[in-house]
Amino acid sequence: MNKRTIHVRLLEALSDTPVVFLRGARQTGKTTLVKQLAEKTADTEGRQYISLDSATALAGALDDPTGFLQGLKKPVVIDEAQRASALVLAIKEDVDRERTPGRYLLTGSANILVLPGIADSLAGRMEVLTLYPLSQGELAGTREDFIHALFQQDFTPGGTPASLSRDTLLEAIAAGGYPEVLARSSPRRRAAWFDSYITTLMERDVRDMANIQDVGGLLRLLRLFGVRSGTLHNQAELSRSVGVPASTLGRYIPLLEALFLIWFLPAWSSNLGKRLVKSPKVHVCDSGLACHLCGADAARLADDPIMAGRLLESFVAGELLKQNSWTEHPVSLYHYRTQGGEEVDVVLEDRAGRVAAVEVKLAASVAAHDIKGLASLRDALGDRFVRGVVVYTGQDVIPVSDRIFAVPVGMMFAGHRG
């Protein structure tokens, strides 16, 4: 069983916050993690665990939310809480009467915060954490924090970089991070899991959250996002490609976001005196799912460098998103692109306004043209620019310009054991 790095942050939140909401896609390990916390140990009394995947529990939560909560021993874990959003108001009333830390630990495989009034109801009472599919560091048993390293005065990514040949890297991209997929060695069995997973989401979670009649249209949209993962989002062009009206896409896209299937990397902008592209980039949340939607395995990625480069960008952006859920140096993530074509795949801005940037290259060497976007951003920002890196498939950390380095992709996942 892989140790989840967010476990420490979850314990911290439970120590001082009445309600903690652990959200994330289905099958990322939320239930396993909260059941571990629910168990009685020598140091804790444990907590009651109840899942709203149980028809009986769900009926009670829907019919009488207040009575349902009164019948539970606190502290309590309520798994799949998005299935009974009416519980939120009852939880607010309960914690207002008894505001003890860690009273409720909720999980959800759909983001209940997008539902009207939910976020406002628990404002100041709830901390939200996101559990993503397994990171490469979690798979290797390390606690990686590449984001923290990027902002240090002495750039030391830490640890020995994971040895990642090009073939190994492509295998990692094609596999993704869902625990159940990684437990299957056969590509055919992995594909079967993804097919079943998508079917379950479309037939169950989508219908739970929204009155969607054309599930086929939603599925076509998801498949197209797989093909376009790592590209600029153009909703009008997407509408034409899928054959779905723009107004309908306005309902479908937030639904796919709420189910943690896709995420948008917003365009970074500042007063730089440059004309910047304002469109976000779209990424499928798991590179393995993106590959499945494209019909690609590691062998096809090896034969198609354009697809492989695009999915590598999504893979790296996704790993940074995961690390940002536990890093000691939290940042906001963006991409950067000028009208002149200078671009950076991921821009990281910390709370002090300092910026680091990551460019991704599926190559074993770095040339001068590979750092044009990083150099453009550095020159525009001056002292605010802390560091830029080109993540590549070579073996050495190489300074290539002022505050710009070439860094082996495996360095992103190196860290401390345990």
Multimeric status of the protein: single chain
**Biggest β-sheet description:** 6 strands, mixed
- What fraction, in percent, of the residue positions are helical? 40-55%
Strand content: 15-25%
Overall average residue pLDDT: 90
Terminal residue distance? 13 Å
Q: Categorize the overall geometry.
A: globular
Strand order of the largest sheet: 10-11-12-13-15-14
- So how many helices? 18
Low-confidence segments, given as residue ranges, are none
The counted number of beta strands is 16
Structural class: alpha/beta
Radius of gyration, taken over Cα atoms and rounded to an integer in Å: 22 Å
List the helices and strands and how they pair.
Elements: H1 7-16, E1 19-23, H2 30-38, E2 48-51, H3 55-63, H4 65-70, E3 76-79, H5 87-97, E4 104-108, H6 118-121, E5 126-130, H7 136-140, E6 142-144, H8 146-150, H9 166-175, H10 179-182, H11 187-209, H12 215-228, E7 231-232, H13 235-242, H14 246-258, E8 262-265, E9 281-284, H15 287-294, H16 298-303, H17 305-323, E10 331-337, E11 343-350, E12 355-360, H18 372-381, E13 385-392, E14 398-401, E15 404-408, E16 415-417
Parallel strand pairs: 1-4, 1-5, 2-3, 3-4, 12-13, 13-15
Antiparallel strand pairs: 6-16, 7-9, 8-9, 10-11, 11-12, 14-15
Helix pairs in contact: 9-15, 12-15
Give a structural overview.
- The protein is α/β, with parallel strands linked by helices and 418 residues long.
- 42% of the residues lie in helices and 18% in strands.
- The protein contains 18 helices and 16 strands.
- The protein has helices at residues 7-16, 30-38, 55-63, 65-70, 87-97, 118-121, 136-140, 146-150, 166-175, 179-182, 187-209, 215-228, 235-242, 246-258, 287-294, 298-303, 305-323, 372-381, and strands at residues 19-23, 48-51, 76-79, 104-108, 126-130, 142-144, 231-232, 262-265, 281-284, 331-337, 343-350, 355-360, 385-392, 398-401, 404-408, 415-417.
- Strands 10-11-12-13-15-14 form a six-stranded mixed beta sheet. It has a five-stranded parallel beta sheet with strand order 2-3-4-1-5, covered by helices on one side. A three-stranded antiparallel beta sheet has the order 7-9-8.
- β12 (355-360), α18 (372-381) and β13 (385-392) form a beta-alpha-beta unit.
- α9 packs across α15 (287-294) and α12 packs across α15 (287-294).
- The longest helix has 23 residues, at 187-209.
- It is globular.
- The mean pLDDT is 90.
